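Fold these two proteins, one after the other.
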Amino acid sequence: RESQLQPEKGRRRFKPVCMFKGPVMTNSNGEATVRFDMPNYVGSVRVMVVAARRNTYASAEKTVPVKSDLMIQPSLPRALKPGDKFELPVSVFAMKDNIGKVNVSIATEGPLVVTGPKSQSMVMTKQGEQDCKFTIETRMEVGQASIIVQAKSAGYTAKEVTDIMISPSSARIYETRE
């Protein structure tokens, strides 16, 4: 198959978080509220504001942490080839005490197969981190794949979708004869 030899470029694995809103009018105190739906992201973002009034301009910026009470962080390899087998470690973070029982599950799309258990449970009584591992194997195919990891407790849910390309093991080989 032609797509097996030269797969399409695929989706971006690391999606940048960049949002824009404006212009926004402030109230008489110079205050305004802007709301964004934050995509699944762990880390911090920089919030920047540019203000204008007639011929006067000002700016401000601030680094803001992005977190929720239950977060997950899978650690995928940088590249996958057909026939690869690997363990996927998943870090589960409780940002508050008494999260309780957390069920971590995994699903795949594309040329990937989970070869071990597809879910694991843990109890998180204190703030902190716990790890679990899943075993995954790539089929003897190339193409776009996705790994979906989800953690659920009684009151919280965290989901991480990672897109990764399964690339050919070697470059296309051309042979000519006369």
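Now the second one:
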Amino acid sequence: DVFIRAGVLVGLVQAVCVLLVNFNLSPEFIKSTVIPLFMNGIVCTGFVMVSLKVFENVFGEITNFSLLELSDSSQPLLKRLVLEAPGTYHHSLIVSNLAEAAAEAIGAHGLLTRVGAYYHDIGKMVKPEYFTENQMIAGNKHDQLEPSLSKLVILNHVKEGLEMAKEYNLNQRIVDFIPEHHGTSLIHYFYQKALAEGDVEQADESEYRYPGPKPRSKETAIVLLADSVEGATRSLDEHTPQKIEDVVRKVINNKFIDGQLDACNLTLREIDTIAATFVRVLTAMYHGRVKYPESTDEH
């Protein structure tokens, strides 16, 4: 729709300009010059629409047109995510809302951030039952596994996500969200479990870190923070505004201290704005409901 309007506008501007220059309203001039110029704008728009994917692949960029297409829930990967890992899909929706709001608050690419969040965990479809958000009724699969094996399952969802993205030919700008949303973060729970079990050889910290790379853009860094914050706030027993703010600030501070934001160009002011945005969105999401007294009908 935007492309069509742009083509019509370009065609009109060209036609009006040539008429103003020549002051010629003869049927022959209009037929031979004005109409072809008007049609030129529409034809150029059609050419751009047809060749858009080619230029995106050549230059490694992605347009809003393609992003909107990828955000459609009828996309094959998203349809699979809904059916095979519904908990992960719901988690991705929440992360996308958090991340898009934060991106827009600091002037980053909000739409790219939202779509990247949709696809950041697609690798969990391979073994969805091993991830907390998909363990609805069944017990935790990791209870029967050694920490070293649990670690491999968790780490592999990034590798499997990259393979899936390649299979579905996702744009590289979207693919970047898959490894970068974890950076080189430590899989803290299973590392601590390995330490508690006294397995010194298997408890090498470097073995319990994601392979990276660390986020290299503001958009992937925001998704890393949103992903961590969403999981931490979901596990809270009580979602008061103060507790939400405390956990958001703690998570972001830990990621900063761990060096996960070193490769992107986020400023301290922007990080503070991101934290404030997360708190605002999460507080609205978990807002308390007014408890109304029960009505007693006297007859």
